[in-house]
Amino acid sequence: MTRILNLTILLMVVFTLQGCGVYNFTGGNVGTATTFQVNYFQNYAAQSPGSTIEPNLDRDFTLALQDLILNQTSLDLTTAGGDLIYEGEIIEYRVAPMTATSNQTAAQNRLTIGVKVRFFNKTKEDSDFEKNFSFFYDYDANTLLDSVKGEAHEVIFERITQDIFNASLADW
Question: What is any Pfam family matched here (predicted)?
Fold first, then answer.
């Protein structure tokens, strides 16, 4: 009786583990791709009215996108000839007042970052795209942007890079 029980438990464990092998908990579907490249995202935000240039934003965003794809897939990062190619520009970096106080002054400011992305998949036809992605971070109007910039960029990059990942590799 114990032998049958042990055998049953062993079979259940094997089938459970085998069944988990087909799922990717990040939702990424890389198909037959083995490599990806993220070309340097140039910062053209100053060309958009009301936007400014933030030093090193282009480098930081490029690295954030590379890190997210490395962490959520088994793809290898390459500098040229990738199966999946991400490229684009930072097109917006804007701070605007959001809510007003009774004294008609800003109570909150909003930092918005916008990115134009072109995605090319050499292994899967009809999955290429060109899209704009943006997100924001609200902060107290009495606070200087410099004091919240690190956290703001982290929050915005996390959202935008995940949106890019979902648009390019998630099959929902």
Answer: LptE
Name the region of 2 (left: φ>0; alpha: ψ -120 to 50; beta: rest): alpha
Would you give the DSSP letter of residue 3?
H
Q: What's phi and psi for 116, nearest 5 deg?
A: -100, 130
pLDDT tens-digit map of 11-39 = 565 555 454 443 344 446 777 899 999 99
Q: For residues 132 and 120, what is the distance between their CA atoms, to the nearest angstrom?
A: 15
CB 53 within 8 A of CB 60: no
CB half-sphere exposure, 165, CA atoms < 13 A: 21
Task: List residues bridging with 88 in a β-sheet.
Answer: 117
Tokens (6 digits) for 146: 């410099």
Cα–Cα distance between 68 and 165 in angstroms, integer?
A: 8
Mean pLDDT of 135-152: 94
Distance CA(81)–CA(93), nearest Å, equals 30
Q: What is the pLDDT of residues 39-92, one digit of tens each?
A: 999 999 988 888 888 999 999 999 999 999 999 999 999 999 999 999 999 999
Token output for 99: 């809510």
Q: Based on DSSP, count helices (H) and strands (E) in the chain, helices before strands.
A: 3, 6
Residue from 28, 5, 10 nearest 167 by CA: 28
Enter the pTM of the model.
Answer: 0.80
